[in-house]
Design the sequence.
């Protein structure tokens, strides 16, 4: 198992997946003293991974840039891409040469009479780890994939190997602690990959090699003393649950114990922090071991798979002379913040501070800026970049940036809390000119802490392995500025007009503003130019109040000066205010921003022969701005703090408001100040959008001064009134606000709610005193209306003559061979029958509007048997207050007859008499039988209609299309005793029916004469019915107790010329007689069968003695006498 291809390489090359991702908006880069314009870019052979590792190096006062290229081709015989380490000049010459650590090819041993290869250096990734002791010229470079042949040359074990240079790029020696014949196999040291990470002490006397693949990839760390040639290692075997933990993935040297802290600076007596990114059940762990590689303390990660410990660095970031730890977890994803885009692989860096007891505490977590940026892939101690006494840190995010080409973040050390909360500088690959567009993994490797260019500031070396580049970024000198700002006098007195305006000689209050600056810095010029941007009254959001006396009316200025190093210099100016300013409470703030002017010093260093970097202002500590505030003296006692006590009362002129009455709404307002002066005392009245402001009535001439209340322009209906500036103690302001509701307004609440408030720019004492500063005035709104329904039939009565119809019918029918008649097809609507209009009207007698009325009209289109009755020829006609939904397509003129338009307002008796079967003369009426026809009732004694009652309610509803409730329709249909399937239903709505407005609906039809003749009724009524339901009133008035309105329009039909035969067919009469005779005969036969017709008669013999005597008391009975 190889760690490089299986873990590290796959981790690092994942940037290839980013090419198709959408770019995110780039946060503006913040620049400090790492200069990108003077960057020196070195390039290596294409595909060599030049820049995979980098290290700053100094040997005999000469500076070098060391760059690892683990896939480079070397001159080693028979070795393919064994890898190399380059040394590059820090000068613009960009010259690089391979360092000849190992010029030999594969090792050979003698077996018998032949030489046999004993190892494999091809693709060994030499330069995969690279460290320098910085000052004394010692270097360690490793090949973690170096393969050694073990077990009688039968096994191939990637044991890894390291080479050390003792100085001057000479004295090379190899150290491979896992190259042991009897320790082959992955369960021992056969896959240890020694040199995966490495470290060397500053004095070059001791090296550390990490072997994360040892002992089933539990990992092991080796220490080797180059002076004594003695080696040590961590515990070789841990419990099985530590398998695959990768101990030794990263290394960092530091002083973490009392013994190492007391040893001389730069000695080999150091401790080591070891990264273990798959330890702690894959959450990661840092093992801190002493000089004997005994574990002292562990620091554990917090997220599974974040690779906590992938990168490590030590730095004294808080200046306490103790080494602190900075730990990278580049695969960390933020799972606690909800965003549209998941925070995958943004990365996180942890800061662990060491205390005097050598305990570590995680005090800071710094998250990456972009998905898959892998912030924390590399970490480097940059030294003290700004020379403030605290070491600073660079953190690489190789797939960050606007085009995912990489970025390096600079964080400054500080005394408290770890690194700075936000980065002090971010360097994107795109900012490296002219090769920024070629970079692809900028920041993958970092090295810092050495002053390469000799300007006494440490520089930074950045590697980009995907572009085969290494970039040297130099640090610019830092200028530290000490500045002060003062006023004389400290505050403004409006009555003390000591200054005069130059152009008008007007006396104004003024103060003198003085600002003093001094600069220091390491390796900065003796004279520097500064630019001051001065802005007056910056805290005020409105028009400025403070101005330059010499530049009347201006409150901004820019001044350039030349300062000498370590010499303070002061300048001053006068600033004034006008006597009539309104805002007397907001402090008058003066801001002075200072910056370095365009650099005018030397740009070439004749000592070093290199370009001289321009200095930069120090961003650490105080910002580059001076600020101070002045106040205006007030008549508020010795403390100059006024505490008002305003009290507000508002009284309306009406207890309630009835919509439609056109009354004015008047609010009487009283504001009194019971406390000290109230500055910019204001009254605000927030009114409903349906209220129109008319005017105010004032009791005094000066205040209030009111404005606003223009909702069409401002979007809010707020009246603002100035009550005085100041409104002095015991001052009373009284006035009346006159308003009226908007006509035709859509009211949205059950009352008119006014919110009144008074305040001043100087607050009152506490919340208790502010309770009487605001009021809510609610005026209930009443809704009253009277809905009246009416209707008529035009004509009110239709006379039908069956004799005329029969004659016409015979004329229009065609004789058939079997003597039957077939009527010719009807072509226009007049052939149906006479025209009948039903007209409905709804009138609102007010005074309030009705928002919405749902109507349903039941139209008797057919009889119960399905015969056409009132044939519809048009959709309902309405005025502008009503709208009807279209009727079903088969309901209006289903026979497609030609139209003959009529008008319900012009139908007269003369027009009725013109119809062929309409006559005016009444025929003799015959008693008609009762029928159960839909839409028809026997003529009642008196025509009926429902009377409308006024209904009162309150509130409002949104105007929508509504219908009559189904429960009401079902109830009314059952009461009519019919089948609703024979009705044609029209659904209509009446909207915004105002006072005395009328909604009209007209329905035109034709009375089908054939159906009338077929019914054989002499007198009857045909009626339609309208059901009206109020669905919405202003302010959501409750409609639960409001019954529906029902109105019926009837058309009387009188039939003449009808005989009994006309009413009953002759064959039906004969059939009835025959059926009656048959029924009688069957009944007689049945009675005879039962013996009903058989009677027992007395025998024909002589009369017997009667039961009673015929003579009694000598009286002879005669027929007719009654026996007692």
Sequence:
């Amino acid at each position: 198992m190889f760690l490089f291809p299986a873990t590290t390489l796959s981790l690092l090359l994942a940037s290839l997946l980013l090419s198709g991702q959408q770019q995110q908006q780039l946060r503006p880069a913040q620049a400090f003293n790492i200069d990108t314009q003077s960057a020196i870019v070195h390039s290596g052979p294409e595909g060599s991974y030049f820049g995979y590792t980098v290290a700053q190096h100094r040997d005999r006062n000469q500076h070098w840039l060391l760059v690892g290229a683990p896939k480079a081709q070397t001159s080693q015989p028979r070795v393919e891409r064994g890898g190399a380490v380059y040394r590059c000049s820090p000068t613009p010459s960009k010259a690089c040469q391979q360092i000849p650590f190992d010029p030999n090819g594969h090792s050979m041993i003698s077996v018998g009479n032949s030489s046999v290869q004993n190892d494999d250096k091809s693709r060994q990734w030499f330069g995969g780890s690279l460290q320098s002791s910085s000052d004394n010229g010692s270097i360690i470079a490793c090949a973690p994939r170096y393969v050694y042949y073990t077990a009688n040359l039968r096994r191939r074990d990637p044991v890894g190997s390291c080479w050390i240079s003792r100085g001057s790029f000479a004295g090379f020696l190899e150290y491979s602690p896992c190259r042991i014949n009897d320790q082959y196999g992955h369960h021992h040291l056969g896959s240890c990959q020694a040199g995966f990470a490495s470290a060397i002490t500053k004095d070059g006397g001791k090296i550390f090699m990490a072997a994360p693949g040892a002992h089933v990839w539990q990992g092991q760390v080796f220490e080797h003393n180059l002076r004594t040639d003695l080696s040590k290692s961590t515990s070789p075997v841990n419990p099985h649950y530590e398998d695959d933990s990768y101990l030794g993935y990263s290394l960092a040297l530091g002083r973490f114990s009392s013994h190492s802290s007391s040893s001389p600076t730069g000695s080999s007596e150091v401790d080591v922090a070891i990264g273990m990114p798959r330890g702690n059940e894959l959450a990661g762990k840092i093992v801190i071991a002493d000089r004997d590689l005994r574990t002292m303390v562990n620091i554990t990660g917090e997220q599974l798979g974040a690779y906590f410990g992938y990168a490590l660095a030590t730095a004294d970031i808080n200046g306490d002379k103790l080494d602190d730890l900075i730990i990278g977890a580049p695969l960390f994803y933020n799972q606690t913040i909800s965003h549209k885009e998941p925070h995958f692989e943004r990365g996180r860096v942890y800061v662990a501070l060491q205390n005097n007891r050598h305990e570590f505490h995680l005090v800071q977590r710094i998250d990456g800026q972009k998905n898959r940026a892998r912030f924390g892939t590399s970490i480097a101690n940059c030294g003290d970049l700004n020379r403030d006494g605290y070491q600073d840190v660079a953190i690489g995010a190789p797939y960050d940036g606007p085009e995912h080409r990489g970025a390096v973040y600079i964080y400054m050390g500080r005394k408290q809390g770890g690194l700075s909360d936000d980065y002090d500088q971010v360097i994107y690959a795109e900012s490296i000119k002219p090769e920024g567009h070629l970079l692809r993994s900028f920041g993958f490797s970092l090295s810092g802490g050495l002053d390469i260019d000799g300007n006494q500031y440490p520089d930074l070396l950045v590697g980009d392995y995907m572009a085969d580049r290494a970039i040297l970024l130099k640090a610019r000198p830092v200028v530290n500025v000490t500045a002060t700002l003062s006023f004389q006098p400290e505050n403004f007195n409006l009555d003390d007009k000591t200054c005069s305006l130059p152009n008008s000689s007007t006396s104004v209050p003024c103060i003198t503003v003085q600002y003093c600056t001094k600069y220091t810095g390491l390796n900065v010029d003796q004279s520097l130019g500064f630019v001051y941007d001065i802005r007056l009254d910056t805290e005020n959001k409105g028009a400025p109040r403070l101005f330059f006396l010499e530049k009347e009316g201006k409150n901004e200025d820019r001044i350039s000066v030349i300062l000498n190093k370590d010499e303070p210099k002061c300048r001053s100016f006068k600033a004034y205010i006008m006597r009539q300013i309104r805002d007397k409470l907001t402090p008058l703030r003066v801001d002075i921003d200072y910056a370095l002017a365009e650099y005018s010093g030397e740009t070439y260093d004749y000592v070093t022969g290199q370009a001289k970097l321009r200095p930069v202002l120090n961003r650490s500590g105080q910002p580059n701005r001076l600020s101070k505030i002045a106040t205006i003296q007030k008549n508020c006692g010795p403390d100059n703090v006024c505490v008002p006590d305003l009290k507000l009362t508002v009284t309306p002129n009406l207890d309630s408001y009835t919509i439609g009455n056109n009354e004015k709404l008047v609010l009487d307002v009283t504001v009194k100040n019971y406390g000290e002066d109230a500055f910019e005392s204001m009254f605000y009245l927030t009114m409903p959008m349906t209220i129109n402001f008319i005017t105010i009535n004032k009791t005094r001439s000066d205040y209030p001064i009111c404005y606003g209340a223009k909702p069409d322009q401002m979007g809010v209906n707020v009246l603002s009134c100035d009550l005085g500036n100041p409104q002095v103690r015991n001052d009373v302001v009284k006035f009346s606000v006159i308003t009226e509701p908007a006509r035709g307004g859509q009211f949205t609440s059950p009352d008119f709610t006014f919110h009144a408030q008074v305040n001043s720019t100087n607050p009152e004492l506490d919340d208790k005193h502010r309770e009487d500063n605001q009021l809510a005035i609610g005026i209930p709104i009443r809704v009253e209306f009277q809905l009246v329904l009416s209707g008529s039939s035009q004509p009110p009565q239709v006379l039908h003559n069956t004799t005329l119809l029969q004659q016409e019918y015979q004329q229009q029918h065609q004789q058939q061979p079997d003597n039957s008649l077939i009527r010719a097809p009807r072509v226009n609507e007049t052939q149906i029958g006479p025209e009948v209009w039903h007209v409905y009207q709804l009138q609102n007698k007010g005074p309030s509007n009705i928002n919405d009325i749902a109507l349903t009209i039941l139209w008797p289109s057919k009889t119960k048997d399905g015969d056409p009755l009132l044939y519809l020829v048009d959709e309902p006609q309405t005025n502008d207050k009503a709208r009807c939904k279209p009727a079903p397509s088969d309901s209006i003129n289903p026979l497609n007859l030609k139209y003959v338009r009529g008008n319900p307002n012009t139908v007269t008796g003369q027009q009725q008499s013109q119809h062929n079967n309409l006559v005016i003369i009444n025929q003799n009426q015959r008693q008609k039988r009762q029928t159960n026809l839909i839409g028809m009732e026997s003529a009642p004694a008196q025509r009926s209609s429902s009377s409308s009652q006024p209904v009162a309610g309150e509130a409002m509803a949104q105007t929508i299309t509504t219908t009559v409730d189904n429960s009401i329709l079902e109830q009314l249909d059952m009461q009519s005793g019919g089948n609703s399937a024979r009705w044609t239903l029209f659904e209509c709505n009446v909207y915004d029916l105002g006072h005395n407005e009328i909604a009209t609906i007209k329905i035109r039809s034709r009375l089908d004469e054939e159906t009338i003749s077929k019914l054989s009724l002499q007198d009857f009524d045909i009626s339609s019915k309208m059901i009206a339901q109020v669905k919405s009133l202003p302010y959501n008035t409750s409609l639960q107790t409001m019954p529906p309105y029902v109105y019926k329009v009837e058309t009387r039909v009188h039939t003449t010329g009808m005989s009994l035969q006309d009413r009953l067919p002759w064959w039906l009469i004969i059939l009835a007689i025959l059926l009656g005779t048959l029924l009688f005969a069957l009944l007689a036969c049945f009675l005879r069968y039962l013996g009903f017709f058989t009677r027992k008669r007395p025998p024909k013999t002589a009369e017997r003695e009667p039961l009673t005597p015929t003579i009694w008391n000598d009286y002879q009975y005669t027929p007719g006498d009654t026996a007692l």
